[in-house]
Amino acid sequence: MSNRLINILVPVISVILGLIVGAIVMLVSGFSPVDGYAALWNGIFGDSYNIGETIRTITPYVFSGLAVAFAFRTGMFNIGVEGQLIMGWLAAAYVGQAFELPTGIHAVVAILAAAVAGGLWAFIPGILKAKLQVHEVIVTIMMNYIALHTANAAISAISGGKEKTDKIHDSASLSSEWLASLTQFSRLHWGFVIAILAVIIMWFILEKTALGYELKSVGFNKNASEYAGMNVSRNIVLAMVISGMFAGVGGAMEALGTFGNMMKLNAATGIGFDGIAVALLGANQPFGVLLGAILFGALKNGGLNMPNAAGIPTEIVSIVIALIIFFVASGYLIRLFLERASKKKGVQKVKGDK
């Protein structure tokens, strides 16, 4: 069995196994798997509205996945993507409603503000790691909660005590009447194009630039990189800042595209934490992250239709989605099984020929 065939079979078998075990869970719980999966399919592809909402859901997951993956590729573990995304959301919402700029330029400025906000929020754990060897996991986890409450306090200050900021100006919006009309007035916006550009940018940085080479080198071996003359501390900080910038732009997609403002949050959005799963599904590769985000976002959006159309409780829906993702993430075991089966078959064939 060729490696190319194995590469095709692994994700296919993973998804099938996830669907089978998910079906068993639904059966044991007294629900129809056929109705459940039909509702899931319709929630993703049922009509143009659901397709638009699915693409909209995928968009921020691309950025959170890229943020986590970029940190992983450079030897860092950025658990603070959630907080960096929140700060980017806040910055984009503020710039979008507080300033009046020409159409197009306004959106670009708001996105840049979000990138800066996310990058600065990631700079803190980066500099602590580089200079004081404080573990980034601890700092980033704590900064998620700081970001949540800081954003809520800032919203109160900006809006004069209201629960959300004012709507952004049309000049800063990523929404499109044309896209809305194509998808039965879903919330699909131009952010999906920016997400694809972000995937290309991450690939270019890591694979085609000297900076990317240094960042990956420091991630692989700090001592060897320092011996080779690389500035380890600077690269640690840069890795975290760039990761935070991806996360911040993900927040801008929510501010400028989906909602058009920012409301007070009672808890984390979950997008940043889900980015860890997206990055792992994509093997920390830019285009792999895109595919992981497509799977994750599609399941998330399609799952919303299962309670309404099939009467399946949200808890069961979450279990089914988690099982599918689990088997996809466990693709290494399936690959190992296929490779061993292929080798065994090859040995038997050789013995038969003899």
Distance between the termini: 20 Å
Low-confidence runs (pLDDT<50, min 5 residues)?
Answer: none
Q: What class do helices, strands and sheet pairing give?
A: mainly alpha
Shape: globular
Average pLDDT reading = 90
Radius of gyration: 22 Å
Largest sheet: none
Q: Give the SSE order as H and E letters.
A: HHHHHHHHHHHHHHHH
Total domains, how many? 2
How many beta-strand elements?
0
The percent range for helix content is: over 70%
Helix count? 16
How much of the polypeptide forms β-strand, as a percent range?
A: under 5%
Keywords:
354 residues, mainly alpha, globular, single chain, 2 domains, 78% helix
Structure description:
There is one protein chain. The protein has 354 residues and is mainly α. It has 2 domains: 1-31 and 314-354, no CATH class; 58-292, no CATH class. The chain has 16 helices and no strands. The chain has helices at residues 3-28, 33-45, 48-73, 81-98, 105-132, 136-159, 177-182, 191-208, 210-220, 222-227, 232-258, 271-281, 286-303, 305-310, 314-329, 331-353. α3 packs parallel to α8. The longest helix is centred in the middle third of the chain and has 28 residues, at 105-132. The radius of gyration is 22 Å and the shape is globular. The model has no long low-confidence stretch (mean pLDDT 90).
